Amino acid sequence: MSRLPGAMFIVLSLAVAACAPVQPFPADVMNGVEKEFDFTAWRNIPNARLGQKVQLGGRIVQVNGANGNLTIIATQLPIVQQPAYGPKDTGRRSGEFAIMYPGSLDSKWVKAGNRLIVIGTTKEAKTVVVDDVQRSLPSLSAQCLHIWNTGGKEITDFPYNAGGGYEPLEEETHCAPQ
Amino acid sequence: MTRLQRQAFFTSLCLLSLWAPAGGEEIGPVRHSQATAPVVAQAESSRETGTPSQQPVAAPPGGTSLEDLLLQKGSITMDEWIQIRAEQEYSGAESARRIDAIEDWKTRTELLPMLRDKVNFGLNALQFLYSHQDAHVPEGKSQDNFSIRRSELLFWGRISDTLPRWHALMEFQSINFGRETPAGGSGAATGQPIAATFFRESYIDFRPFQSWAPYMNFIRMGIFRMPFGIFTETSGGLRDIISSPYLTSVGSGNGNRTGSAGTIDFLQERDFFVDVRGKLFNRLEYVAGIMNNNNFHANATGANAPKSFYTRVRLFGTDVSWISFTTIQGESNNANTNINGRGKGAFDRYGLDFRYTSKIIPGFMVQGEWWQGHDGANQTTVGRPANGACLDQTICGGSGAPGAMRRTWYVLAKYLISDGPFQNWEPTVMYEQFDPSTSVSNDLYTRTILGLTYYFENFPPKVQSKIQFNYEFRHHQGNGPGVAYDATFDAFAQNAFLVQFQIRFM
Lengths: 178, 506
Hints:
heterodimer, A: mainly beta, 8 strands, 38% strand, B: alpha+beta, Porin, 2 domains, 7 helices, 35% strand, elongated
């Protein structure tokens, strides 16, 4: 009988751990991050909220620049916990933003369609060319990026629904060099 | 009010109405043209009306347009000013009409199922194969063969969060009638071809509770690649070598009394099943379900067979490296089966697989599988009569062999060159063994495959166009001790060279 509480404690601990939310970034990176950042307001008046540390999810639209100084244009997507943690396409267009990443990334991570979550600091609006159209977009200076190599598919499509078989989803966290 | 008063009131109204048109003319453009300010006021007034046709005629910063300035400076006349404005309004209206038409088209097309992810289609694999086989072939056949290895179209869609996937895979060379093993003695007629199965895969995913995902992600029901190991679950359009591994099928001809000969389908790639899938700790994937255990042809030839339970747990070290444990437990039968090498009685499989995808050496991957399992007595080859566990081959047909424990394993390694003159080339090497009966000697199949792949497009899992060159060193010891064996015509004992050109796009 004395073993029962211990066994129950282990089972409960495992259950809680099994269902714990996913956190791809180190704890120190997450310090001071505003998770409920109002993207719409920022998009409307980009320069009104400078210097805020925020977390945003999105889908890569285009990548400009060379290694060592990348500008990633992303469409903002809401970050969800279910059915799989990450940015989820809800079908509504919410707008693009620019991510300035002062580092180099392998080309497979920065291809259009990949999903990402960025931790960064808001900067002044940046003029970029998207699909041959010059636009002024709100911008972030990225501290860390977590990228899913989805190639345009949903995160939930992996590993069982991506093609006609099993295909694990590559994902990786990249932080800017200090 | 008296009658006279009413007449006087209406008379006044009539007089006023006669005067009004004159006043109306005075507040027209002609009157405004007398001064500078009203011109600007008119421009602003036109913006206030807010009609789409007038919106593009917005004044530049400062509130005065070019034609206003020209009019003020006397460079153009009022008539010219009106003409310019009219042209602007006309072009503005035309632009607005075009934008409205585009918006209308966009609204309509966004409702199309194809654009809402409800219906999609793609080319799972279209493969043209050349093969040279060293084994002797019957009269009229050639050692050099051209063929379409796969011609598979894939259809899929997402209905809602509750029904996240429907899926159908058509194999366009599935035109041959399939046959099964008839129940009966050795004198019974052989199984007749009775039906064709056009699809390879057809399933529905059901996610009953969104909040339970991904821990209990979804229930899958239908026909699909079984979650056994790595190879069986990898699409034909994404495989690293051309031939299927021996664990899915090996050998030729009928079985014998030792259980070490004949065609053996150790693990079928697809089956009817219902299972539940999910992920725990963000590191542990699981699958558990029940299957028909009679291959995908069974939908046409008669689906039901003794059922089997299966489960797999896959523990991830990184996002793309793992180790898995699989087991299948249940019953099998040799009568009315669509799978070669199955006997009557208890059926089990135990599997271990791993994949290591290096992040230190990008492009390098190694994977392997080890499988062992038991087939019941009197195993049969599809089409050959059999009758239960009877071991007297002269009466019951089948192989007349007691149950057999089978074992197989392989290791595969590859390296994708990502830069330099050999960019997009990928050398591959694989070694495998298959032992049809662990209690019988001199029956081992071995194969070493040296491969070279060039990728024209490589964006898995959706796109992969490539050409593959494989040379296979094959060896087959025989069909057991004391059994006469001629390797001359045995394709599993003679080397082969294969070239395959593939397109995959979805």
